[in-house]
Amino acid sequence: MFNKPFHIKSQTVLKGSDRKRIRAEISAQSPLFTPDILTTLIPQKSDVQQVRVSLHNGEPAFIILTAKQPVFFEFAQIYYPSVYTAWNHPECLYSFATWLPVINKIYGGADLMLPGVVSKSEVTPDTFSHIRSAMAVAVNAVGNRAALAIGETCMDGQSMYSSGMRGKGVAIRHYYGDHLWMLGSKVSVPNIPEIESSVHEIEDMTNSIQSLELPAQTADETEHPASQSQGITLCAGDADGDSVTTGESALNDAAVFDNLGASNVIEDEESEFSKLTEDTKLLQCFLYALKKKVKQSSLPMLTSAFFRDFIQVCCPPGETLDLKKTKWKKLRPFLTEMQSEGFLDVKETAKGVHSVMSTNPTHDRVLGFRPWPLPVEVDSAPDDTQEYVYEPPQIVELLSINAQTLPLFCKLGLSKGDTLSLTEMRSLVTEYVKKNNLQHTENKQLVVLDGVLTDMVVKKKEGYVEYLKWNILFERLSHALGAVYMITYSNGATSVKKGTPPPISVQVVTRSGNKKVTLINNLDKFGIDLKIMAKEMRSTKACSTSVQDGKTGPQVLAQGNHTAFVYKLLKEKYRIPVKYLDIPT
Questions:
Q1: At residue 215, does pLDDT exceed 70?
Q2: Section 299-324 average pLDDT
Q3: 314, pLDDT greater than 50
Q4: Which of 503, 470, 463, 498 is nearest to 484 (CA)?
Q5: How confident is the model over 89-103, as a mean pLDDT?
Q6: CB atoms closer than 10 angstroms to residue 390
Q7: Does position 256 have pLDDT exceeding 80, yes or no?
């Protein structure tokens, strides 16, 4: 991780509540760190900073500094101690011993393989029973307990034994001499004797450790003070020889820590976000929304509005989200997966209409997420200073192949459930008629019905029918096929539903006291925000409005008869086609 220089993205002094939270998270992950030790490492009143960095591969990490000395770092929601912390508190970390040649491989970018682990006795099922998977551990050289590397276990102790001590044991995250070590005091490896080791053995082992060489480095890095004082060569890159920044530039990054303050200093946030995959971008913005944007008072709301008003606005300036480029392709599968992981609750409030009912801001990943600051705080709901821009959805009415029409269309290479436009259906039927010579020889406007066509378009009460005109044949086939429609919203979300598109219906009903109210239904099916619609009617017509649950889903209620106004508003401003408006004149 830190074998190449990293870039500092932000830095801040930790508040007391954040320090308490971090200590609790570390204690839960690594119980050997007692509360007293953690209070010493992350004190309540001393200078403790958290630094957000971008690693050489673009992944984010967080470093905890106490008095400018790295004590912990967080990567992928796991806290790891630095080698400095491991040296001061070796009793707080389980450690794997290995030989010096293996340490050389680790300095070259390798992980610790189980065949390289040295055990004082024969390995039994109980030897590593205390080891869990994804656990922060240390790696030391035989004869000296001082940690030379920090990593994460790739399997639990039982799996290590059952594998015959084969495979990867520890994924290395940080080691003595890397760029994280360079941020600290750069002291040499201490002498921490093992119980059965003599002082002379430890001194010999320490001298051997300090003489180890890391992979080849540039000329500038050989002049680095740390490499001169420690007798080791600092890692400049991976074994594949990738070019990296020199040791001097890493020192310049480290010098930034001298000016830490309570305010954040953000550098290249947009460029970092642009390097992420589309899947990661979407997840990051989703977590940002749950942590900073969503208010429970604004729920429930349509999933399309949730994506537009909460998730999309969390992108850094100049960045966008493209659902079609993610592995989910559409919004619904993404929210379904997030619901299965306990982030939120999504329900189908009406047929084909889904709404976000609630969110879980106390989820572990939400609590552990570190949001980036946005230049301008965008309110989660539109207000008076924001113009609501509505783009009508694209609706395409289609025909679906069902069991009744399958005998015809299976001959044309289609399957049950496939959808066709009216034009495609006409073309395929024409192809079938010509291929089977069913067109009347004398009157080209007639089609001779074979057994397949007769079963689909002729009713029993009609008796025997030999011919049909082309237009009647197409009309009857369109009725025999199932009706479906595909609706694509402005945010890219697309869904295919059975039946015909339900129109926006407006009703005027009489309530108690002979008072008339206007009820507007199915606005949500066209992606219209009901709260904004109600607010617009309230301000324009000076009437009382509300959003309530109706028989077919949420509806807008307005006091008085406003059918003419609603018709004009939906037709002109919202650009809803007239055929999708069911409004009495």
A1: no
A2: 83
A3: yes
A4: 498
A5: 89
A6: 16
A7: no
Q: Is 531 helix (H, G, I), strand (E, B) or coil?
A: helix
Q: Which helix (H) or strand (E) holds 19?
A: helix 16-29
- What is the mean pLDDT of the segment spanning 153-175? 88
Task: Name all contacts of 350-354 with Cβ < 8 Å and 24+ positions apart.
Answer: 350/524, 350/525, 350/552, 350/553, 350/554, 351/497, 352/495, 352/497, 352/525, 353/302, 353/524, 353/525, 353/553, 354/302, 354/303
* 251 close to 184: Cβ distance less than 8 angstroms: no
Query: What is the mean pLDDT of the segment spanning 559-575?
Result: 90
DSSP 454-480: HHHH--GGG----EEEHHHHHHHHHHH
- CA–chain centroid gap for 532, Å, is 29
Residue-wise burial string across 478-511, b where 16 or more C-beta atoms lie within 10 A, e elsewhere: eebbbebbbbebebebbbebeeebbbbbbeeeee
Average pLDDT for 102-131: 87
pLDDT at 435: 87
**pLDDT tens digits for 34-74?**
999 999 999 988 889 999 988 888 888 999 999 889 999 99
First to last CA, the chain: 69
**Cα–Cα distance between 31 and 18 in angstroms, integer?**
19
Beta strands in 142-219 (DSSP E): 147-153, 168-175
Which residues touch 240 (CB under 8 Å, ≥6 apart)?
A: none
Pair 197, 120: CB distance under 8 Å: no
Q: How far is C-alpha 74 from the geometric centre of its chain's CA atoms? A: 19
CA 166 vs CA 39, 154, 509: distances in Å: 39, 12, 76
The answer, yes or no, to whether residue 281 has pLDDT greater than 90, is no
pTM score: 0.40
Q: Are strands 344-350 and 394-400 parallel, antiparallel or unpaired?
A: unpaired
Q: Which residue is associated with the tokens 């994506």? A: 307
The number of C-alpha atoms within 13 Å of 172 and in the hemisphere containing its C-beta is: 26
Paired with 50 in beta bridges are 12, 64
Over the chain, what is the mean pLDDT? Answer: 79
Nearest to 480 by CA among 429, 534, 441: 429
Determine if residue 68 is left, alpha or beta; phi over 0 gives left, psi from -120 to 50 gives alpha, anything else beta.
left
Helix, strand, or coil (residue 381): coil
Burial 149-181 (b: 16+ CB within 10 A, else e): bbbbbbbbbebbbeeebeeebbebbbbbbbbbb
Instruction: Quote the CA–CA distance of 528 and 539 in Å, as a whole number.
Output: 17
Beta bridge partners of 556: 520, 547
Instruction: Mention every residue, 6+ apart, whose C-beta is less than 8 A from residue 216.
Output: 236, 241
Output helix, strand, coil percentages for the chain, rounded to the nearest 5.
35, 25, 40
DSSP H helical segments within 211-329, as ranges? 219-222, 225-230, 247-255, 269-274, 278-288, 303-306
Tell me phi and psi for residue 203, to 5 degrees: -65, -40
